[in-house]
Structures are given as C-alpha cells and as structure tokens.
Amino acid sequence: MTGNTLRTFFLLAGMTALFMGIGFILGGAGGALIALVVAAGMNLFAWWNSADAVLRMHGAREIRVDERDPRLRQYASDVKALAFKAQMPEPRIYVIETDQPNAFATGRDPQHAAVAATTGLINRLNREEVQGVMAHELAHVKNRDTLTMTVTATLAGAIGMLANFALFFGGNNRAGLLGTIALMIFAPMAAMLVQSAISRSREYEADRIGAEIHGNPMALASALEKIERSARQTVNEQAERNPATAHMFIINPLNGQRMDNLFSTHPDTANRIDQLRKMAGAAAPVRSGPWGPRGPWG
C-alpha cells in the first residue's frame, strides 16, 4: 500500500467516523448505526450509478465509430492508444460541448470507466497536449480514483445533509441547541477539508502516472497552463450548475479558485507544473518559449 493510498484510507475512515459521530449525537448508538447504514446505502448507489449520473449532469455525448468530426475521431483514437499503452481496458469516450478546456474521468472501476473532454480542450490544445491530459485521466481510472472521489463526494454531501437535519432536533439531542448550531457549521467544513485533501493528493499522483503513460511530462505541463489560463476566462455552465463535481476535472472548472489552500479541491497549477518539470528534467520555466501566452494552440 503506497503512502498516498494509506493517507486516503485514513481520510475516508475519518469522514465515515464523522458521519457516525453526528448520528451518535442525534440518536445515540442507534443513531450511529443508522448513519452507518445510510452512508453504506448512499455509497452503494453512487458506486453503481456514478459514471452515467455525472455524464448526464454535463451533457456529455459518447464518441461513436461513425463520428464525422475528424478531430473527435483523432481524440478517441488517441485515448484508445493510451489505454492500450497503459495496459488497461478501453474506457467509454465522451465529449462535452463547452468552450472551456477541461476533462474528467468517472466510473466505479477500469472495466466501467468513462473519460470526457470538452470541445474547448480539443480545439484549443494541440494533439500532444490533449494526449497528456487524457493520460492524466486514464491514470485516475487506473488508480481507481474515480471511485474514491465518488465516495468522498457522497459522504461529504450526506454529512452536510445530516448536520442540517440536526436542527430539527434542536436542544433535544445530546449536543443541545448551541452544539447543534456548531455541528451545522463545522461538520460540513470538516467534510470539505477531508474531501479537498483527498482530491489534491490524487491530482499530483495522476499527474505523475499520466506523464509516465504519455511519455512526455512537458506536454501535460503545457496543457495545464493553457487550461488554467482559459478556465479563468471561460464559464463552464454545466459545472457551475453542478459544483459538487468540480473536484473531478483536471483543473477546477469554477471561476475564481487558484490558491493551493485548505479548501481548494485542486493543487495550485504552478505547483503541479513544477513537479512535471522536475520529472522532465527541464531547466527553463514552462511559461517561456512555445508555451507562453502567444504560443501555438494547435
């Protein structure tokens, strides 16, 4: 078990304990047991339906063998080639109609996985950069991060719901009225911290493995810089309507988040680029040369 996997295990265990703790405050040992059963049921549902649900949220369209757009055919062909290189099953391949360049992976395991790229990603980045991004997404699938992210998102949402539900019990529960108010404020915040910590650690690992799959860390570094710059200037309406899925994208699709702080779902892009540069042994900054603001876009 790697350090990253062990860390994720303890964070998930902590989130589950938090969920059961809220149940105990509301209903004692019986409440804790009910909370555990509810959490298990919600996660089972999310495990079985996560891929299709997320894809529907973002209006994703599957790329078929009779696809007419040559750029989409090339994108699908490259993803299949990368999956073969990574020695993993071919995922279902989708495209999302939005001008913001971005991508994500979903699915409960590599046999039931799907990857999706936006039209903005395919149109704004060159072929090698798109390959670097999709190798990153395949790394998430290979690491089974897609299941981990679904579970954390489900538990985080359930904790927030349960904490709000506590208000109906007022001062009749073990925490009293003031404790209930504190519970409503701090329980969702704690869940958010855990979810963010898991997401950030997984992004660094997917960057590393994705760069190994593709073979060129600088292609992903260049892509991250372009996506970050464009994402801050372009609104992704589907993502704005479904902010709970923001942590699944390679770059936060919601405008305004750049800091690598406790509450951000993604590491700071500059930090990720620095790690990729170290992998490539690059001496020159990524922002110079062909990856600058006026460089070629494919």
Question: Which terms would index this structure?
Answer:
mainly alpha; 298 residues; 4 strands; 62% helix; four-stranded mixed beta sheet; 9 helices; globular
Number of beta-strand segments:
4
Helix and strand string, N-terminal first? Answer: HEHEEEHHHHHHH
Helical percentage: 55-70%
Strand content: 5-15%
Oligomeric form:
single chain
Low-confidence stretches: 257-262, 283-298
Tell me the overall shape: globular
Measure the end-to-end span: 40 Å
Task: Indicate the mean pLDDT.
Answer: 78
Based on helices, strands and strand pairing, what is the structural class?
mainly alpha
Radius of gyration: 20 Å
Number of discrete helical segments = 9
Give the strand line-up of the largest sheet: 1-2-4-3
Characterize the main sheet. Answer: 4 strands, mixed
How would you explain this protein's 3D organization?
By secondary structure, the protein is mostly helical. It is about 60% helix and about 5% strand. The chain has helices at about 5-55, 70-85, 120-125, 125-140, 145-165, 175-215, 215-230, 235-240, 270-280, and strands at about 60, 90-95, 105, 115-120. The protein has a 4-stranded mixed β-sheet with strand order 1-2-4-3, with helices on both faces. Helix 6 (about 175-215) runs parallel beside helix 9 and helix 7 packs antiparallel against helix 9. The longest helix is centred in the first third of the chain and has 55 residues, at about 5-55. The two termini are about 40 Å apart. The model is unreliable at about 255-260 and about 285-298 (pLDDT under 50).
